[in-house]
Amino acid sequence: GVWQISPSYLSDSINPENTRGTKEDSFGADRVRPEFVDSGVIFVQRHGKKLRELYFNFDDQSYISNDLNILAEHLFENDRVIEITYQSEPHGLIWVRTQKGLLFSLTYSRRGQKLAWARHDFGGTVKSICITENNVEGRDNLYLIVKRGDLVTLEVMTSSCLLDCSSTGVSGYDRFEGQLIWAIIDDEIYQEVMVINGSISIPFDYTTVVAGLFHDGEIGFHSPDIPMSDFTTTHGSKKRITDMLIKVQDSLSFDIEYDGNKTEVGDRPFGSFQRQLPYSTDHFVSIGGTADYSP
């Protein structure tokens, strides 16, 4: 379980002869190093299936333990959490590595009432993660060791590069031999660049090149829970969605799918050395009342 160790006599400091243990949580904790986040402690519950937060509630004058997987209990059903680490800047993310080598992030702020899980797929297994301070950029960096086949690489997660397992320059890409990869050339994104003899060939003048594996993301939404005037909610009932407003920042093209329909948003060129420009916009989607959410 989770215990608080304090001095038996508050007037004296804690020592082997002045110690008292108080059990604060009945769920138990796994043998994974916890993290201190937002004046609380994030830890892995016994059996490694859930993350919990323990914090002191001044109204109740007691410790409270919240289940952080209450909206995503399926994530670790057939797996086990074996490592967590906290990235405070720039977004406040709890990174979670599992026994199967999967990586998840939890955007969490109790005070801001934010809780959102995401899975990050690198085309391999994640063997280790850690956070280091980047005083130059004023942020924390996530470093991870990733194994893809027989190749093991040390990589850093950064928002300045939208590619996986990337490197700078036009050579040193033997790991991608014969594959089509993406490149960022002079801060502009190009797709489908062929790797031949460990190198890529660029048919125009350039200053800087970063190349690596392209990755895309998928966002799913929970069924909306809308408060009603009679103090009930729409939880568990069928709802009809008629319109959506999607806000994106520095995004490439993306698809919106509902009821088997797909709508492409943004310019998506095809072919080698086709340029994509990230953009920020508010995109309004009129579904026409055809997309139903059922419990």
Short account of what is shown:
This protein is mainly β. The protein has strands spanning 2-6, 20-25, 35-37, 40-44, 51-57, 62-67, 81-87, 93-98, 103-109, 114-120, 125-134, 139-148, 151-157, 164-168, 180-185, 188-194, 209-213, 239-251, 254-258, 261-265, 274-276, 279-293.
How would you describe the overall organization of this protein?
This protein has strands at residues 2-6, 20-25, 35-37, 40-44, 51-57, 62-67, 81-87, 93-98, 103-109, 114-120, 125-134, 139-148, 151-157, 164-168, 180-185, 188-194, 209-213, 239-251, 254-258, 261-265, 274-276, 279-293. With 295 residues, it is mainly β. Strand 5 and strand 6 form a beta hairpin.
Radius of gyration: 24 Å
Question: Largest sheet, order of strands side by side?
Answer: 14-17-15-16-21
Number of helices: 0
Strand segment count: 22
Distance between the termini: 35 Å
Task: Please write out the topology.
Elements: E1 2-6, E2 20-25, E3 35-37, E4 40-44, E5 51-57, E6 62-67, E7 81-87, E8 93-98, E9 103-109, E10 114-120, E11 125-134, E12 139-148, E13 151-157, E14 164-168, E15 180-185, E16 188-194, E17 209-213, E18 239-251, E19 254-258, E20 261-265, E21 274-276, E22 279-293
Antiparallel strand pairs: 1-2, 3-4, 4-5, 5-6, 7-8, 8-9, 9-10, 11-12, 12-13, 14-17, 15-16, 15-17, 16-21, 18-22, 19-20
